[in-house]
Amino acid sequence: MKSLQNKIFLFFVLLLVVVQAIAFFTLYSGNKSQEAAEINNRLTTAKTIFTELFNKRLEYLAAFAETAAQDYGLKEVFNDDTRSLLVALNNHRKRIDADLVMAISASGIITGQLQKQFNSMVNGQGLGKVRQGIERGQNFRFPQWLASGQAAHLYLVDEALYQVSLSPITVGSKTIGWLAFGFQIDQRLASEFQSITGLNTDFMLKYEGMWRLIASSKANLAQTTKLKIAEKELAQKIIQSKIPDQYIATHSLITEFDQQELGVVMYGLRANFVALLQQQWWRLLILAALTLFISLASAYFIAASITRPIKRLLAQAKVVASGNYQQRITVTEKDELGQLAQGFNEMQIAVLSREKAIMHHANHDPLTDLPNRNALNKTLENLITQAQPFRVLHLNISRLKDVNDTLGHNVGDEVIKELARRLNLLNKQEYLQLLVHLGADEFVLLVTSTDLDKIIKQIQDNLEANFNYQGISLQLQVRIGVALYPENSKNAKSLIQMADTALHHTRRTGKLVQLYHTDYDVNTVERLNLINDLKQAIPSGELELYFQPKLCLRTMVVTHVEALVRWQHPTLGMIPPDDFIYIAEQTGQIKALTRWVFTTALQQFGIWKKLGLNLNIAINISAENLKETDFYQFICQTILLTEVPAEKITLEVTESAVVEDPQAAIQLLSQFKAHGMKISIDDYGTGYSSLAQLKQLPVHELKIDKSFIQRLEHDEDDQIIVRSTIELAHNMGLHVVAEGIEDEFSLNWLIKNDCELAQGYFISRPKPAKELTRWLLDNPIFSLAKKNEKESV
Ligand code: C2E
Ligand code: CA
Ligand code: CA
């Protein structure tokens, strides 16, 4: 009942029923009044017909009586003997088949009377015998009729009622008597009326205050008195206008003579009369029922057709609710429902696109629009199920933090976007499964190729060109940690973790690319212990200083040494600085460490000086140290104490250390410079600083990072970079140190390209002070021949 379809249907049903009821009622009342009018019309007509027929008979009688009264033969025998008169009377009677003929003498005595005996009450056959009337010889009962000259009358004789017409018979001016002819008012007449009007006809006579049934069109009444009485009672009621409902009836009264009244009653069964009307009525009812049925059926279909698209929409809504947005509703209707469906489809598309946007959002980084960690996890799982070898490359933009801090986050974002764009160029490569931006400066590449060198070369090639943004020229560089599937792990989470660990390891090694190794994980665990142990390292004398020579390429004499710290851990053995400097920086212990290194290195200067080795000492300074308020004071004090000339001291500061807080750095470094110390920019080329920026720094020397030097022999690009760096540095009045010389080629190449100083394993590994002293004394001049000779031994 609650459904829309049912409601619409019910509405139609009610509407139709009401409309039909009104129509039916109108029709019904119309029919009823039509019926009444027709009955009335019928009865009036019947009455008129009766009156006319009745009068016609009378006129006919009158005309005939008059003619017969002229008859000479009759006149002759009028006063004759009875027999002759009767014959003559009968002859006349026969001519019009009258039922009564009478001759009345001038003295008012009935001289002849013939009655055709025809009484349906007695003889239903209607054949009558002519016999003499009982009134012969008697006085005519109505002498006033004779005197008045009135012709037409009703006349009752011997229970039979007649219509009579009187006509005087005259001889000359003398009336010799009267002649009367009559037609009986009997069943024949009644039947005749009935056949004309279609109504039962009764004749009733009232005399002495009582109604009597004279004749009836109903022939069977003669059979029982019971029927006759019933008929009489009905006729009497009709005369009294008390017509029973089942009848239609009319009556007419003819008052003719004293105390006697003739009543004509005409009636019929209402049912018979209205049968035809009722038949029409039934036809109408059937028609109405049929229309109602058809209307209801169409109402049902209309209701269904209205609700069909709604039902389809409903079904569609359920489909959409279940998460299926692909399916559309095809609605051909152009009406509101069609529009609704159209709107529904549009809504669906909007929801779909919104959901797509949300999905996109959920799986992409908002800044670069590259897939994010979610997408990475999914793709990783997929790749793992395919069981094909692949590599996870975790990329980190070098020194993004510096860019953010110095140039603002807008520039930082541009750098990230540019890097993303360049990495995206790899998408053309078949091996690239997915490029992910984890956020900030971190990216991940999933590659299926096992030729890592080629991939890394391609990455570096893509990043090679400087990125120019708002007049700033930045160099994009990434460090890469790599985890291998299935070699390292078969678990997605672990693989990401391992690539990350490998990436972290690049910080220590200074390498740009690092494959994961299980040892790194151990180190990470160890690192926690190291933090604790490091506190004890200085007081316990566990730190040792190594020195690595820097060769002057003009003189081939070692003029400088770089102090590089080592940690002799009581249980773990020698720990390389990459593994603990980072921790020292993070835990604030770098302050003490740097001070120990500085003091120790200057003391070593004194020892060498005494030995006649006049060396410049280079000491690594952390970014953290530059933040110390009393750092400058400490350096000056130590110089004073150890009596080392300030110009013999070089402070190696990384680009990033300066970039973090350039104003403060510039101020502090300027103080050092003013004090006579040298400033060297360490690991030059791995950061973003351009030479133009460095110009503002109080710098003496650039130390080109080993990553550019190590491959000099094989990488022409590196040659170009190093050559142009040397040229530019010289143009700016800076000296150049190259670190990471691992072969003769590099050394010769640097000599050829006017590099001032060279440092690297090819010349000498970092050595403990004593060992280096011996080496220095053995090699006052660095000779290649000697070196080769030595190596070959
Ligand atoms: P660095 O300042 O760039 O030091 C140069 C590093 O390059 C040294 O590693 C040295 O052993 C290495 N090296 C020198 N020649 C070659 C070569 O031909 N090939 C290769 N592959 N490497 C070469 P080391 O001693 O392990 O020091 C690593 C880093 O630890 C240093 O990088 C420096 O950043 C830091 N560090 C070392 N000592 C100190 C220190 O006393 N204070 C601070 N703040 N940092 C230090
Ligand atoms: Ca250094
Ligand atoms: Ca370096």
- Structural class from helices and strands? alpha+beta
Number of strands: 27
Radius of gyration, rounded? Answer: 72 Å
Strand line-up of the largest beta sheet? 18-19-21-22-23-24-25-26
What separation lies between the terminal Cα atoms?
108 Å
Shape: rod-shaped
Question: Major sheet: size, sense and barrel closure?
Answer: 8 strands, mixed, barrel
Low-confidence stretches: 120-126
Question: In percent, how much strand structure appears in the residues?
Answer: 15-25%
Which cofactor or ligand species appear? ligand C2E, calcium ion
Overall pLDDT metric: 85
Assign a percent range to the helix content. 40-55%
Discrete helix count = 26
Description:
- The chain is an alpha+beta fold and 793 residues long.
- The protein is 52% helix and 23% strand.
- It is built from 26 helices and 27 strands.
- An eight-stranded mixed beta barrel has the order 18-19-21-22-23-24-25-26, surrounded by four helices. A six-stranded antiparallel β-sheet has the order 3-2-1-6-5-4.
- Helix 2 runs antiparallel to helix 3 and helix 14 crosses helix 15.
- About 1% of the residues have low confidence.
- The structure holds ligand C2E and calcium ion (2 copies).
- The site of ligand C2E has 24 residues, from strand 19, helix 15, helix 16 and strand 23.
